[in-house]
Write a structure and sequence with these properties.
Elements (H helix, E strand, L loop, with lengths): L1 E11 L2 E11 L4 E5 L6 H8 L7 E6 L2 E2 L9 H4 L2 E4 L3 H4 L6 H11 L6 H12 L15 H13 L5 E5 L7 H18 L2 E6 L2 H7 L2 E4 H4 L4
Parallel strand pairs: 3-8, 3-9, 6-7, 7-8
Antiparallel strand pairs: 1-2, 1-4, 4-5
Length: 220
């Protein structure tokens, strides 16, 4: 279970972006979180992925309450969640080749020996040509870079995926391809999915159920 309990979070003291948010995601379930731009859903997604410490509230993953966030989160919880952001160019180190970008979580967790095989397999899975793996982010398109970012999110085989506006900058064909990759991965592993977005048609087609922002959070 992925549980967000009464989350209040922001970036300046006394000025919350999210207030009193509550969300529960069951294993294997896909939940679409629908809301307008600027409502705070991306902040909540970062909290769910243990990348942002809330001012109040708790995050529970598989029965364990997170006691730290970012690098202070226990590795067992931190690696349980894979995340894909809206803007791949802000999420990728511009100095890294794509093969190193995909392999980064393996190296960070002491599994460097697995990198070559894992990168090759995931590149094929996400539709990223092997000829692109030695390129850097500025040498590929947004769609190609987002494919690499999705591969990076999957490389540790997480039990939960958080996709924060993953397809917002992509064309229809790339959107369909990446959604298909996520669904294939979920079918193989039973992973749960939190898909954040503002497109009700996409989320309703993609997810088992959708929740509107106003249903899970109070006004900041």
């Amino acid at each position: 279970m992925l549980e967000l309990r009464d989350i209040t979070a922001g970036y300046e003291r006394g000025r919350p972006v999210v207030e009193g948010a509550r969300l529960t995601l069951r294993p294997g379930e896909s939940l679409g979180l629908l809301g307008p731009s600027g409502c705070g859903k991306s902040t909540l997604a970062r909290v769910a992925a243990l990348l942002h410490r809330p001012d109040r509230g708790t995050v529970g993953i598989d029965g364990h309450t997170a006691t730290g966030f970012r690098h202070r989160a226990p590795r067992s919880l931190r690696t349980a969640v894979g995340v894909v952001f809206q803007q791949p160019r802000l999420a990728a180190d511009p100095r890294m080749r794509l093969r190193d970008l995909v392999a980064e979580p393996l190296r960070a967790t002491g599994r460097r020996a697995e990198a070559a095989d894992a990168v090759a397999g995931l590149a094929e899975r996400v539709g990223l040509g092997t000829d692109l793996l030695d390129r850097r982010p500025h040498e590929v398109s947004d769609g190609q870079l987002q494919r690499a970012c999705l591969a990076r999110a999957l490389v540790l085989r997480p039990r939960w995926l958080v996709c924060d506006e993953m397809t917002a900058m992509l064309d229809a064909s790339t959107t369909a391809a990446l959604v298909a990759v996520v669904e294939e991965y979920r079918a193989d592993t039973g992973a749960g999915l939190l898909a954040v977005g503002h497109d009700p048609v996409l989320l309703q087609r993609w997810c088992d159920r959708t929740a509107h922002w106003k249903e899970i959070a109070g006004p900041p």
